[in-house]
Amino acid sequence: MSIPSNLRTWVQIDLAAFRHNLKAIRARIGSTAGIIAVVKADAYGHGITRVAPAIVDQIDLFAVANVHEADELAALGLGRDILLLGPCLPDERQAAVDAGYIVSVSSAEEASAVAGLAGTRSCALNLKVDTGMGRMGCWHEDAAEVVRQIVKLPNLGAFHISTHLPAPDEDADFTREELEGFGRLAAEIKAIAPRAKFHALNSAGIFEFAGFAPDYVRAGLVLYGSCYPDIYQPQIQPALSWKARLVLVRDVPAGRSVSYGRTFFTPHQMRIATVPVGYADGFPRQVSGHDAAVLVHGKRCLVLGRVTMDQILVDVTDVPDARVGDETVLIGRQGGEEILARELADKAGTISWHIFTGLKPRGSYFYYDSDTGSTV
Ligand SMILES: *Cc1c(COP(=O)(O)O)cnc(C)c1O
After folding, report:
1. Mean pLDDT across the stretch 224-252?
2. Is residue 19 lining ligand 1, measured as CB closer than 6 Å?
3. Hey, where are the domains in the chain?
4. How many Å apart are CA 270 and CA 281, to the nearest integer?
5. Domain 240-375 has what CATH class?
6. Helix (H) / strand (E) containing 76
7. pTM for the full model?
8. Does position 213 have pLDDT exceeding 90, yes or no?
9. How much of the chain exceeds pLDDT 90, in percent?
10. Ligand 1 centre from 37 Cα, in Å?
11. 164 Cα to the center of ligand 1, angstroms
């Protein structure tokens, strides 16, 4: 792919990575469970209008956070049902029902209020059950009774019953108990609501507890090729690379201060390159002083001093042929080296989800397919 030489920064998305990652998910969960592709927050910053059409043939449902995101997705006309993961405001319910979205509810009262807006049409609901996330849903001990109320709704259409795991990558013992409890609940509820579809697993759950995938899994981060815990990283491919061009290369004598706050002084003569991205583009300011690196000519080059709004300064002393205009990689691969979103996240004291959804590069997005070699 040739990138215009006057472009300072850009993101490249490899659509083949999604196919690969969906195969990896399928390999873990087996052939019976369906895949709900979580494309909230603009497909985790990857661009929903390009990602959703690229994966639609390999997934069963889409999930987004809210009605606003669902409307953007629905406008693409991809012909898959859309699950709203978050609660609706009372004044959003009518639009959600009219559009036929699967509305997540936390109580029988909320279910009945939503269904009431559908008139004689059928209404699709997802009853959330709180098994430890503490964010939405009815309490697990009340769930059977809530389902008894909901199945009385005359116009109940698709009916999902789901939970969300708070710690699948951090507390295996708790999660196993949580999933066993949800499994027992599902068995009990099936007698009351035989058509209900159950789901619980997010990305970490898919890797760590694939055996607990009943009707669907909800795949977010793994789809984009990042995962926790990182032992599973070799099974998936990052879809996104973030690149920029060096805009300035300078020789800096020993003893000069670099960037705001003068937190770094050159210990000896150094060659320092300016990369035209900063925290305004989503390069996290929190990596300042934590030895974050970028790749230049396939070599790791440390970020020196603080990240500024529009620029970072990197040590290219060991890359003597680095020139203005050369490509540098902030996330992605160059030569034999790779910087994962997860690495940048770790250095910033945050998580890959946060890095992806915070990307706002003042440049362009390019989509390509590494299987066919085409730019799309
Ligand atoms: C965001 C979200 C997911 C996807 O989580 P990942 O860890 O990114 O796979 C699944 N379920 C719910 C309810 C979510 O909010």
Report:
1. 97
2. no
3. 32-225, 240-375
4. 26
5. mainly beta
6. none
7. 0.97
8. no
9. 98
10. 9
11. 8
